[in-house]
Amino acid sequence: MRVAIAGAGAVGRSIAGELLENGHEILLIDKAPTAISVERVPQAEWLLADACEITSLDEAALQRCNVVIAATGDDKVNLVVSLLAKTEYGVPRVVARVNNPKNEWLFNESWGVDVAVSTPRLMSALVEEAVSVGDLVRLLRFSHGDANLVELTLPEESALAGTQVGDVEWPQDTSLVTIIRGTRVLTPSREDSLEAGDELLFVAAQAREEQLEDLLSVRREDTAR
């Protein structure tokens, strides 16, 4: 898979390193000569250019990319890169970094963004996830379909503890994608039982999040009444 990363700072280089280890073809783009550090990621292609300029993106052959990642420290630049990648070059998948949480509302399909990653929001979500049991935590927002990746740790008193996945009537537009149980990562089947303490990861429509949280957090004594 060919991936272009706009922004060759610490974030961009780290992403490039991870993707290269997974066997992907990487192009790093940055307009600052000081950011071009080929020796830090020697396996990647490097381009000294302004990723907001059509001529630069033509040189980068963006139309051949499967994914574009806008990873600069400037939200305006990330939005422009995302929009150009999607509308001018038809890139199938555009991921954008959100630096200022106040700008998060802009990072959507209208600006060509498929997935917006807000570092401050993600850090706060991980803190919540570490200390919250029974509360739904939003980890990641997907622009297409208005869906989010959400997590909930199943509380001890949940009525669903001991219930098989296939026997649960999940809300519409939600999908249980992973169960994390201790050190194990499980792909849920209909026969798997939910256990107290399980970390459950869902892709869910935002409108269904409250309903999903209510379902998972309901106490046994409440269902017995």
Automatic annotation (TrEMBL):
PROSITE patterns registered for this protein in UniProt: RCK_C, RCK_N
Residue ranges constituting the RCK C-terminal domain according to the UniProt record: 137-218
Domain RCK N-terminal residues, every copy: 1-117
Top-level taxon of the source organism: Bacteria
Record's keyword terms, sorted: Ion channel, Ion transport, NAD, Potassium, Potassium transport, Transport
Any one Gene Ontology BP term: monoatomic ion transmembrane transport
SUPFAM superfamilies assigned to the protein according to its UniProt record, in alphabetical order: NAD(P)-binding Rossmann-fold domains, TrkA C-terminal domain-like
Keyword field contains Phosphoprotein: no
PANTHER family the record matches: POTASSIUM CHANNEL PROTEIN 2-RELATED-RELATED (PTHR43833), TRK SYSTEM POTASSIUM UPTAKE PROTEIN TRKA (PTHR43833:SF5)
Protein name as annotated: Trk system potassium uptake protein TrkA
Organismal lineage: Bacteria, Bacillati, Actinomycetota, Actinomycetes, Kitasatosporales
